[in-house]
């Protein structure tokens, strides 16, 4: 199981509190985690990436193990610590505004 | 006793304000969707408890929420807005081609006879329709593809389709307005469109009377007289007596004819309201005095309405979808400001009270008259 941390707005929208857990085939990739998130919580479709192109929304970032995976391709394999459930995959709303 | 429900969209959430027919004591519910921009909410004319809301942020994009219980609870419905075909380009601010990109829903217009059917005016400008209560959305591409689309340019707020008028006497006929392209008219339920801007004059355009390119801020009509349309343009208050085929200026004796909102009295089609704003570079009322202006003659002759409104140090704006009327007797009038106030008049504008003073900046106000 992959642990996922969602930003506050998306937790409220999805009606979840705390971390979300999703199941993906090994080895877990960024794209597979996002696919699983959207399958488990369909209300998140379109909020992190475009419905059709699956392009990441400009102000959404993906972190894991202190690394920014936002610009990595969808098939990038997530770090071992994330795969083992020791560290979460983090969806973040970029800091913007004053 | 009948009552009124106000649907207020703000920069940081939605609010639902209710009162009985006296319209003196108001109950305020919200914020719904705190932290999200709510550009517009509107209820179905045939089922007032069916309410649609446009919810968005720059971070997480567009959502549409639906309530089936008069705004007590909401559920997210479809949020996939995909342009038909290859959308092509419009003009960017600097006149260069820019790809059509969906940004948000500015305005939701429920059908006059089916609560499951609703139109959405979006940025970049296009018209979408849902026939399943918002679960799915299909573009009506005849508007964007009618021919002038590549020449449309965004206004300062984005290239938004912000006004949708449906003709209660002819289900085939509707008008929409885009900033900064102008008014477009359909007579076949949105399949095909043509510009309806003859008579508009915009000094900001190379051809000041161009067929498209006018920064129309809002249009309004009385349901009993759909051939008469009113418009608040960037500058100029305009009127059409031939269903948008031509327009005449009716700014008359207004202190300034710049502004955003315009609305029509519920019972008198010749009574019109605007809120003059100083200029396109000073988005606040002249002299710091917030005043609604009323014309009882369909334009040209205007009277200031200020009783109960701040008459000094007031530097708020009143945005294009932020005025609405109820249909009680006497007609009630409501507007919201970027300072977070929502003002109500239960006497056709003669006097005003602030229902709330400290909401986030108000983006839209829609009044529902409840049985």
How would you describe the overall organization of this protein?
The complex is a heterodimer of chains A (98) and B (371). Chain A is an alpha+beta fold. Chain A contains three helices and five strands, in the order E-H-E-H-E-E-H-E. Chain A has helices at residues 8-14, 30-40, 80-83; strands at 2-5, 20-22, 60-64, 67-68, 89-93. The longest helix of chain A is centred in the middle third of the chain and has 11 residues, at 30-40. Chain B is built from no helices and 30 strands. In chain B, the strands form eight sheets. Chain B has a four-stranded antiparallel sheet, with no helix packed on it. Chain B has a four-stranded antiparallel sheet with strand order 4-5-6-7, with no helix packed on it. In chain B, strands 10-11-12-13 form a four-stranded antiparallel sheet, with no helix packed on it. In chain B, strand 2 (13-20) and strand 3 form a beta hairpin. The N and C termini of chain B lie close together (7 Å). The A-B interface holds A 7-10, 13, 43, 45-48, 51-52, 57-60, 93-94, 96 and B 35-36, 57-63, 76, 79-80, 82.
Strand order of the largest sheet of chain B: 3-2-1-30
CATH C-level category of chain A: Alpha Beta
Q: How does the major sheet of chain A shape up?
A: 5 strands, mixed
CATH class of chain B: Mainly Beta
Unreliable segments of chain B (pLDDT under 50, ≥5 consecutive)?
Answer: none
Measure the end-to-end span of chain A: 37 Å
Task: Please state the second-level CATH architecture of chain B.
Answer: 7 Propeller
Q: Which stretches of chain A are poorly predicted, pLDDT < 50 over at least 5 residues?
A: none
Give the strand content of chain A.
15-25%
Question: Biggest β-sheet of chain B: count, sense, barrel?
Answer: 4 strands, antiparallel
> What is the helix/strand order of chain B?
EEEEEEEEEEEEEEEEEEEEEEEEEEEEEE
The percent of residues in helical segments of chain B reads under 10%
| Helix/strand order of chain A, N-terminal first | EHEHEEHE
Q: Can you tell me the CATH architecture of chain A?
A: Roll
CATH topology of chain B: Methylamine Dehydrogenase, Chain H
| Radius of gyration from the alpha-carbon trace of chain A, in angstroms | 12 Å
Tertiary shape of chain B: globular
Oligomeric category: heterodimer
What is the helix content of chain A? 10-25%
């Amino acid at each position: 199981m992959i642990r996922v941390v969602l930003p506050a707005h998306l937790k409220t929208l999805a009606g979840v509190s705390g971390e979300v857990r999703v199941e993906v085939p090994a080895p877990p990739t960024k794209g597979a985690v996002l696919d699983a998130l959207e399958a488990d919580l369909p209300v998140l479709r379109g909020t992190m990436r475009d419905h059709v192109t699956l392009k990441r929304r400009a102000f959404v970032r993906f972190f894991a193990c202190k690394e920014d995976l936002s610009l990595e391709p969808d098939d990038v394999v997530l770090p071992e610590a994330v795969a083992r459930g020791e560290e979460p995959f983090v969806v973040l709303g970029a800091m913007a505004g004053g | 006793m009948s009552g009124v429900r106000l649907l207020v969209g703000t920069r940081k959430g939605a609010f639902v304000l209710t009162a009985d027919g006296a319209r003196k004591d108001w109950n305020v519910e919200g914020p719904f969707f705190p932290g999200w921009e709510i550009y517009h909410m509107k209820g179905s004319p045939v089922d007032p408890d069916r309410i649609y809301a446009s919810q968005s942020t720059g971070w997480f994009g567009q959502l549409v929420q639906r309530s089936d219980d008069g705004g007590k609870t909401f559920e997210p419905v479809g949020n996939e807005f995909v342009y038909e075909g290859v959308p092509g380009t419009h003009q960017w601010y600097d006149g260069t081609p820019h790809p059509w990109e969906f940004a948000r829903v500015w305005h939701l217009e429920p059908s006059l006879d089916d609560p499951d059917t609703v139109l959405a005016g979006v940025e970049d400008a296009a018209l979408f329709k849902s026939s399943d209560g918002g679960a799915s959305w299909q573009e009506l591409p005849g508007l964007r593809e009618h021919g002038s689309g590549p020449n449309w340019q965004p206004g300062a707020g984005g290239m938004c389709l912000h006004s949708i008028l449906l003709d209660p006497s002819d289900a085939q006929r509707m008008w929409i307005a885009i900033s900064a392209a102008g008014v477009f008219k359909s007579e076949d339920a949105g399949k095909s469109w043509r510009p309806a801007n003859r008579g508009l004059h915009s000094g900001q355009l190379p051809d000041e009377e161009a067929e498209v390119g006018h920064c129309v801020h809002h249009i309004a009509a009385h349901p009993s007289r759909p051939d008469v349309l009113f418009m608040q343009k960037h500058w100029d208050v305009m009127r059409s007596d031939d269903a948008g085929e031509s327009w005449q200026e009716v700014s008359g004796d207004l202190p300034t004819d710049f502004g955003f909102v315009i609305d029509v009295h519920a019972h008198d089609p010749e009574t019109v309201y605007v809120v003059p704003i100083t200029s396109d570079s000073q988005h606040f009322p002249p002299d710091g005095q917030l005043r609604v202006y009323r014309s009882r003659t369909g334009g040209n002759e205007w009277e200031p309405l200020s009783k109960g409104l701040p008459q000094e140090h007031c530097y708020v704006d009143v945005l294009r979808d932020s005025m609405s009327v109820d249909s009680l007797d006497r007609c009630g009038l409501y507007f919201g400001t970027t300072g977070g106030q929502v003002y109500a008049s239960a006497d056709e504008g003669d006097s005003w009270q602030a229902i709330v003073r400290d909401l986030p900046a108000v983006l839209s106000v829609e009044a529902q008259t409840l049985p």
